[in-house]
Design a protein that fits this description.
The complex is a heterotrimer of chains A (about 200), B (about 190) and C (about 750). Chain A is built from 9 helices and no strands. With about 200 residues, chain A is an all-alpha fold. Chain B has a single domain, classed as Alpha-Beta Plaits. A 3-stranded mixed beta sheet of chain B has the order 8-1-9. A two-stranded antiparallel sheet of chain B has the order 2-3. In chain B, strands 4-5 form a two-stranded antiparallel sheet. In chain C, strand 20 and strand 21 form a beta hairpin. Chain C is globular and about 75 Å long. With about 750 residues, chain C is of the alpha/beta class. Chain C is about 30% helix and about 15% strand. Classes of the chains: A mainly alpha (about 200), B alpha+beta (about 190), C alpha/beta (about 750). Chains A and C meet through helix 3, helix 5, helix 8 and helix 9 of A and helix 1, helix 3 and strand 5 of C.
Amino acid sequence: MSEHSFPVIEALRDFFAATDAAALKEAACRIAKSVGAEIPAHTDWTAAEYEFNRLFVGPAALQAPPFASAWTESDRALMGKAALEARETYHRLGLAVSGEGIIPDDHLAYELEAVLAMKSVLAAGGGAAEADAPTNDGPGTVRSEAGIADLHAWFVGEHLARWLPPFVEAVRAHASAGGVVAMAADALAEWFESECNATTAPRRD
Amino acid sequence: MKKHYAFLVDSEKCIGCFTCAMACRNYYHQVEGVVWRHVYPLGEAIYPHRERAFFSLACNHCENPACLNVCPVEAYTKREEDGVVVHHQEKCIGCGNCIRSCPYGAPVYNPVEKRAEKCSLCHERLDAGLLPACVQSCPTGALKLVDLATLEPGNHIQFPAGFPKNEKVNPSTRFIMPKVPTLVRR
Amino acid sequence: MSHTPSGLSRRQFLKGLSVAGAASLLPLRLLMPYTAQASTAFSAKDFQTFRNACPRNCYDTCSIKTYVKDGVVQFIEGAQESTFTAGGLCVKGYAYPRRVYSPDRIKYPMVQDGRRTGNWRRVSWDEAMDRIAKKILEIKEKDGSLLGMGLTKYSGNFGITNYGVEGMMSSLGYTTRFVGTPCWPAGIDAQNYDLGDMWCNDPEDMVKARYVIIWGANPAWCSVHSMKYVMEAKRRGAKVVVIDPVFTQTAAKADVFWQPETSSDGALALGMARHILDKGLVDLDFVNNAALGYEEFAAYLRENVTVEWASKVSGIPADQIREVAEEFATADPATIWIGYGMQRHTNGGASVRAIDALVAMTGNVGKEGGGARYGHLRTWGFNYHALIQKQPEGSVGFVGGGGPKGEFDFSKGEAASYTDRTFNINKTAQGILDAKDPVLRMLWVSCKNPFAQDFDRPKLEKAFDSLEMVVTVDQFFNETVANSDIVLPVTTLFEEWTVNVSYWHYWLGINEQAITPMYETKSNIEIASLLSKKMNALAPGSCTFPQDIDTKDWLEKEFNQGIYDYFGIKHWTDLKNGPVKAKLASTASWHDRKFATPSGKYEFRSDICQKNGHEALPKYKEGRKPYDEFRLLTPHTKFGLHSQFINLDWMHEYNKEPYLYMHPDDASEKGIADLDMVRVFNKVGEQRVKVKLTRNVARKSLLIYEAWFGRGNSFNVQNLVDDESADMGAYKTGAPGVAIHDQFANVERV
């Protein structure tokens, strides 16, 4: 894996943002490639789409809502504190979900992209990030490498850690064994574990 | 007597509509399974018709609160100015002493926060001159906020049937009992 | 996952940061919700507030104040400006924030590959509209008309702009409409025969009543805000009598509760009338000067009615009937609240007429604090801009029909050579199955959950299976959605502009868009405009519905000078300051005794009624003959409004599962114990449910509250209710009502 690219995160992001069988297949193949998994040749991608929708999209009650608030907010309500935490995190990075308030900010795909953004900046070197930062950033925008590292550590170790484990558990409970959704869940769990292990706790001097 | 806020539960007016309970949930969004205010149907020994008379109950904001007395980390305080018993969740260590000690089951365990919590009497609303969410919501005036220091004597009682009589903690809630109409059945 | 979070508490993390000089990295208010001493006073300045109005089918139609922060609805409360809502909502209303933010909301347009398979795919709005539009064009091509396309819609959303759904259908051509109402039609017809219109007193004037009879209504559950007026009347000395086959929560608040034989109401009212006549307690001024046919009515009473007979039919002792009749006739004013429950019978209209007569002969019609209260539509004088759309040029329709009708049909019907084809909404299943020339090929469902609300659910499933395409517009995945091909996600009240009024009180409230519509949800009129765009792209001129609409503009188009004058406002934007009440000349309906009947008088004898196949006089009509061992009642629960709210997990906290309520003596005969699981069954179908034993229900009666629980619970009372018609309703609502409470069943332990 190159230092400047994070294919698993990108593939997972695209998988959870998929809207049809073609997008699912494309992202799933990239996930499989990056984690060295095999996707059976006879995979029925339309069936995978049905399963994906039962878990994450609807229209029936979701088996595993891909939103942080659904797992951290006491009452499973969306647009709860976790969504606003995510929003705030994106703002600190000078980013925002397009059309805030339409899709909750804490959708897994957005959160993975935020991790991607932070890791990309860190991999490129914080100094460069600071130098390139636009001057009209909002208040509190993080520019220093240390600040982004802290934000990343918090986002992974605190925010994601609160909901990804129960989320993955729910996905595993409802996904069909050996299917692409189960594979994505495994890849997500594996990635998250290594991300946590590689993340130093934020400074507390 | 000093100012001491209390709930007056008028079961004669109460229609068991659960509006108060949901108004609380609407305001505080408690965890699933965590209920600050519940509407309990009275047993048929107390009111002869099943699920037709109720007590709307939350924390009784006692004069001598068991929760406060047993808390090892001073997570409970009783406000000097109005007697409201406040639980400071950030201090709570989730030991469960208060939950076990309250004779009325007011503090409940929040499995997400891993700490206790209970009705706050909406003190942040009281401080802004507003009524507690539940009291404001009641469509029949069956749930009222009263000051025990100025409450006129009347047909309200402290320990109605069905409500544990624990004089030591001296719960502040007062009750008016429901009536039964004349029944003419075929 | 084996990972343990870094071990740092959020608090330590923040502390560390603040030492590092980056305190603003993450705001304390998000991460430390229970910070400090938590005694920071509430401040309204922390919120944006919006005006909303509950659009459900409910007497109370509450005005809501919505508190929004960060673009998220935080909590809601009742508007303080309305003396009716008075700062509070109900258990259902307070659950609204949960509806918006439930993870289980329908979020996207989706297509199901095979009904009831659960195999759903996401499609864009464009693709959804493409499929629908092509089907519509195919139907037109095949049949030469659009009568093969049907609409079933009722009371799921009474926001005025939602009549744009009917407008959308008209804008496509002449279609098939399910008309009438399962709710209140028999009573509407009855009041129209007697008074010329359905028009009730301001409910707030009930405090002036000296005697209140609540007859077949349960406001303690279904109109919680009205109870304070009943209680205030009682506090001022009025006697409150509740008449109901069930000892309801309202009955528990009465002075006297009568539990008559179900559907014997007409006999009871006539027995009381006879006694009032005998005692000389009739208001002669009213019956001689403001009424038509009183003498004939009196003669009917003398010849055909006795108190003893009424007692025998109803089971209420004769001395009780005499006592209450005398008290009612001598109290001034005295009022009767006629509930919708008591007219859901094969003799419901006749019973309402008998009760109207009782109120009229005692001179209580037209009096403040008096009245035969049923409902009104006096505040509904909007433009119905969204509703009234023109068929495309050259549209072919039904020949010889009268067009759609309904209590909420405000289109001024013009004589046209073609009309829509109409079927009885209370026989949806039969209508679909019987449709010929052309058959019904496609059904659009909006503001309605037929599988939870339409009668004879087993038959409905068969009927749906005969349809080529079903499109359902909804917020949650219910059984109707499961039986659809396409589902379209619709906005909640917080996500659209509209305006609401009540059919009971006299307040008017605006509904502002408080938050951006979430996901890909759209309001009903936006959906109509999208469909129009697609139709016109595929076949120019095939749909007249405007293709680009601004929902706020469309709200404005509903207002007119009449509304402004009636409510004493200058402009609709005044409603942003809170709801307003109509400026009433009197709180009493018919206060000038100018009735809207052909004679201009109160009509004890109605020739129109006779012409429509009923008795001219409010004579007793026998009820439906039992078809099984027990009477089955399936009225409203306090935790829901028809199939809405009960599925929400906030509601689940207080109402976890359905129950059958039955008398302990019947239960012991059947070997049934409290909380046993039982099977309730009849000719329609069966339903398993747990039982609670209570004398609140009469002997030989089974009571189950209608509800859609969702969450995998298939409970549905419509497995036990057939589609038998009520006696009246066709005159004013286009189809007779339905005898929901004339059902029968048996029960056994399982």
